[in-house]
Specification:
The chain is of the alpha+beta class. About 60% of the residues lie in helices and about 15% in strands. A hairpin with a 2-residue loop joins strand 1 and strand 2. The longest helix has about 40 residues.
Length: about 190
Amino acid sequence: MEELELVIEDTKDRMNAPLQRLDSELSKLRAGKASPVMLESVRVDYYGTMTPLNQVANVNSADARTLVVQPWEKKMIDPIEKAIMVANLGLTPINDGQLIRISIPVLTEERRKELCKQVRSEAENTKVVIRNIRRDANEMLKKLQKDGLAEDMAKDGEAQIQKIIDAAIVKVDEKAAAKEADIMKI
């Protein structure tokens, strides 16, 4: 039945958003390597407007342990330095008048374990979102069943949705395990 196919396709489509969000959140967790993504959350006071750092400066990784922030306007160097400090990322910017260098400290064992907890927390939050998508899809199937969808077709639809959910949860677990391995690697 066409409505059943629509519910299944909708469920597949809705699975992409939580997985992409998980990727985004995991990329923000640093594994001891310098990455411009680490500064994505930094907002700079740019003429009275809180503006993302990447819109007022170039952010690059000079090497595995150093980030370099080069403002497009010289007078923005102090507000950028202040914004990085205020962002509470555990990073200390060094201003040389031309650009800002940020040395990424080596992660301690305690910090690595803390980051792994964050990874597991993000993974669990993503699984909750996925389970909510399953609940919504199953409710749509029940409505279709009330409107005349055969019971065996509804059961088949539930089984297909469960397969989609199971595959998404496996992806979440794989991503989380890979990130944890990356964090724990010295």
